[in-house]
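Before a colleague's protein record goes any further, I have to sign it off. I want your independent view on whether this chain really folds as the tokens say. The record follows directly below this note.
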Amino acid sequence: MTVDYWILRTDYSNYAVAYGCTNRASDRTCEHAQAALWSRTPTLEDDYVETAGQMFSSVCLNLTTFIQTTKTDGKYQFCFNSRVG
């Protein structure tokens, strides 16, 4: 499955906030969204997490649906993921 995603915000050194749509309705609105906060380190400063939360809220994602995950096999080792819809 191919998922289009957009980088909503990044500082190119520490974090990136990503948003994608896995399924679109006939009116082209997003039925199932995915979002992630990626970090280049195992931890991330609270300011970056807060910025990401603001970005996710701006695209109408419910932050209570997010779960923290740890990725150890790639460039990014810390992220929040959400699948909504």
Q: What stands out?
A: The mean pLDDT is 75. The beta strands are 4-10, 15-24, 30-39, 67-70, 78-84. Helices lie at 46-58. The radius of gyration is 13 Å.
